[in-house]
Input
Amino acid sequence: MRKPASFYFFKTKPIILRNRYERWRGVADLLGFTTPERLRVEWMVFYYTVAEENVTLTAQHFSISRKTFHKWFKRFKDFKYDVRSLA
Output
């Protein structure tokens, strides 16, 4: 009697991906970002999560100017949301 084909292969474990904000923080950890660089990553995380894409709220929360946030956000967006652009 033959065994089913699934018997001969390893069952795959599901891949659980972290959300993108946790990945951004993880990349910053791996690259050894300094404190100001990590803070810029937190600006982006806050902007997308808590502030719901509100620049004014993000700038007020971190006590930075909107112009400064826009400068870093443009760089982040131009590099296709690559965390390395915040270094």
About this structure: The chain has one domain: 20-86. The radius of gyration is 20 Å.
